[in-house]
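Lab notebook page, bench 4
Experiment: in silico fold of construct C2
Operator: M.H.
Input chain length: 289 residues
Purpose: comparison with the prior construct
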Amino acid sequence: MVTLQNEELVIAIAHKGAELVELVSKKTGKPYLWYGDKKYWGRRSPVLFPLVGSLKNKKYRYDGKEYEMNQHGFARDMDFTVISTTENEIWFAVEDNEETKKMYPFSFRLEIGYRLNGMEVDVMWRVINTDNKALHFSIGAHPAFLVPKNREECFLHLQPVQPLTCTGIVQGLAEGQHAVYPVIDTADGYVQLTKDIFDLDALVFENSQVTEVGLATPDKKDYVTVRFDAPVVGIWAPSADAPFVCIEPWYGRCDGLNFAGTLEEREWGNTLQVGEVFETSYTIRVCEE
């Protein structure tokens, strides 16, 4: 495990999955990231690659062959190497190997970085196509944040403020290609974290409808926010009594119930030509009470 700190925050990152496992206020000692308890969910902030969500029947087709891969891909379980460090920034990397090729027939290099900037943590991703053919992939975040009070008293803060169409998820798959269930319409962007809000699985917003998600206290003060430019975001908790909520910017999405295409045809997937690099990031901001 590697730690990084500035005057405001302390973070810790595990070599396994290059996963952010601690996010603590240096002034108050308050933790903001879920601590990982298998009673609810054993992970904390895995990076999802080369798959976001589930495949239909846990299989996909590419180049006339069929491959199996579990939900969210394999990078979260790989051992990463530290490749560079500075006072406020650290980068990890991993590459394909014989085991990944059995599930995913591509050569790649995945780099994950973390940068501290005041009360913010920038989480940075770099996917490099090291193959001699086009690389098809998805990538996403899955950080889990502790709720500041009793969850049912707290709110999601969604921006920009507008009526939002939510994609329905059924047994891990999107309900059709463009489901519209339910529609969330608020006057101020706040949605209460009711007991049943995740009864139908994650709330998934596509088409860049949402660019910032916050957890807010009962008096609607932001506690922690996640800012991103990803085309899809999922918001999830595993049960009504789980003391955390995941805010998940995605460049990818699970298959639809009716999907019958190939890897290249998966919705919100990404393609890199030989030698190309995909770079993006999202930002976590801690808001002291």
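Observations: The helical segments are 98-103. The mean pLDDT is 95.
Next step: discuss at group meeting.
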